[in-house]
């Protein structure tokens, strides 16, 4: 079973440990797991050392817009601006040549919208969705609930499963080592999104 852990890497939307993105990278380094990080441009601007570390440690870098705004609320030109601006910020801070073609719509908004997808395609991107969403961003979610949702979801889905997680929630940091341990025990091999293609 190939599992792609995908991390929406963005500014916190509610109180959480300021050091959680670093702690998450520490877990991946310790466990020898590579993930796919969809990086928000503003976050990369504020955290250039962590942005660089993502790429330096072999993780795949994708684009998560500059401002993290629902794309269906934006004009075509607005979408082009936030996506292009994000790449201009993320690429030099991570050291990757470009974030293309990997993209994730903020909030998942627009991932089934033909207009949004057409604009993204014109920019050289394709949206990457997910198969398992433990809703780790919700303030009422516990680490145990996240582990259960991810492990059960991956087992039910089977091979080539894409898991959505975030870089900032406290509960996610607590859940991540157990997710990796339990999925490995179930025979999982962790891959980046490009390895599922």
SSE map:
Layout: E1 2-9, H1 20-31, E2 36-39, H2 41-46, H3 48-56, E3 60-63, H4 76-94, E4 102-103, H5 114-122, E5 126-127, H6 143-157, E6 161-166, H7 170-185, E7 189-191
Parallel strand pairs: 1-2, 1-6, 1-7, 2-3, 4-5
Helix pairs in contact: 1-7, 4-5, 6-7
What features would you describe in this structure?
- It is built from seven helices and seven strands.
- By secondary structure, it is of the alpha/beta class.
- It has a single domain, classed as Glycoside hydrolase/deacetylase (TIM Barrel).
- Strands 1, 2, 3, 6 and 7 form a five-stranded parallel β-sheet that branches.
- Helix 1 packs parallel to helix 7 (170-185) and helix 6 runs parallel beside helix 7.
- The longest helix has 19 residues, at 76-94.
- The model has no long low-confidence stretch (mean pLDDT 97).
Main attributes of the structure:
globular; alpha/beta; TIM Barrel; about 200 residues; five-stranded parallel beta sheet; 7 strands; two-stranded parallel sheet
């Amino acid at each position: 079973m190939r599992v792609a852990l995908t991390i929406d890497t963005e500014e916190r939307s509610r109180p959480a440990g300021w050091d959680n993105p670093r702690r998450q990278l520490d877990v991946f380094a310790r466990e020898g797991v590579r993930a796919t990080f969809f990086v928000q441009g503003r976050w990369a601007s504020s955290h250039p050392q962590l942005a660089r570390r993502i790429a330096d440690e072999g993780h795949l870098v994708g684009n998560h817009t500059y401002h993290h705004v629902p794309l269906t609320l934006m004009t075509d030109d607005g979408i082009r601006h936030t996506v292009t601006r994000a790449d201009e910020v993320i690429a030099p801070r991570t050291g990757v040549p470009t974030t293309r073609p990997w993209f994730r719509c903020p909030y998942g908004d627009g991932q089934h919208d033909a207009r949004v997808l057409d604009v993204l395609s014109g920019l050289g991107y394709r949206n990457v969705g997910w198969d398992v969403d433990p809703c780790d961003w919700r303030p009422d979610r516990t680490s145990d609930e996240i582990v259960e949702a991810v492990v059960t979801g991956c087992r039910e889905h089977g091979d080539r499963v894409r898991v959505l997680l975030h870089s900032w929630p406290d509960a996610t940091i607590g859940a991540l080592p157990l997710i990796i341990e339990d999925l490995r025990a179930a025979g999982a091999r962790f891959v980046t999104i490009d390895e599922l293609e």
